[in-house]
Amino acid sequence: MCLKRFLSLACFLVFLVPLCVQGGENDDAALLYKRAIEKLYGKKLLNVLPAEDPDGAIRLFERIIDNYPSSEYAPLAELGIAEAYLRKSDPYMAIEKFKEFIERRPGHPRYPYALCKIAEAYQSLLSSIDRDLTPAENALFYLRELKVKYPTYTECGDVDKKITRLRSVLASREVYVARFYLKRGNILAARIRLRGVIENYSDTPLKKEAEKLLREIEKKLARVK
């Protein structure tokens, strides 16, 4: 009888130990995560503006990932690292880290947040319409994915407006190129660009501008005839 009780107690302890370890792991990870967030966003002391320390935050987030990979804080730490690079004004590294997250954790609740942040990071790379607009196209890709997969997601603001704004940037580039062709006397190429804006970017304000320019071109061509 004593042996039976001993074996029952032993089995109970074997079952209990992992739970205790898991609980302790989450507790330790939670403390590290709290410290990392304070470093990331700054902790206000004596009514002084908080001092951010994104590099220190990254080190703490990495400790969570290395030491507590199975805790609920590990994926949050991955997002924290990406966010830290944004605060370091390094959108390229931020994009890389956010992409690693969505590849590694497609079913995570913060997946749509990562899609939104990738789009925002790409958008931050835009300078002017006479430069490379690949970042705008990339931002559009992730915003569209967000809209299709998570149509009720609200933490990214008005996704439709953001998509229209980026499409307006691309349309502006087409109008810019059309004007360039007009100055060079290449009316045919200008007409092709403007018609493309009217057909492909009808949801943007640039449609009216393209239509106006196209009418002016048509009038000039009519006078020539």
Give the integer mean of the pLDDT values. 87
The radius of gyration over CA amounts to 27 Å
Structural class: mainly alpha
Give a quick account of the main beta sheet: strands, pairing sense, barrel closure: none
- Please give the share of residues in helix: over 70%
| Bulk shape | elongated
User: Which percent range describes the beta-strand content?
Assistant: under 5%
Query: Total number of β-strand segments?
Result: 0
Give the uncertain stretches in residue-range form: 1-23
N-end to C-end Cα span: 112 Å
- Following the backbone from N to C, one meets helices and strands in this order, namely HHHHHHHHH
Describe this structure in words.
There is one protein chain. The protein is mostly helical and 225 residues long. The protein has nine helices and no strands. The chain is elongated and about 80 Å long. Mean pLDDT is 87; it is low at 1-23.
Descriptive tags:
225 residues, mainly alpha, 3 domains, 9 helices, 0% strand, disordered N terminus
Could you give a short description of this structure?
The chain is mainly α. It contains nine helices and no strands.
Per-chain topology:
Elements: H1 2-41, H2 54-67, H3 73-87, H4 91-104, H5 111-123, H6 134-149, H7 159-183, H8 187-200, H9 206-224
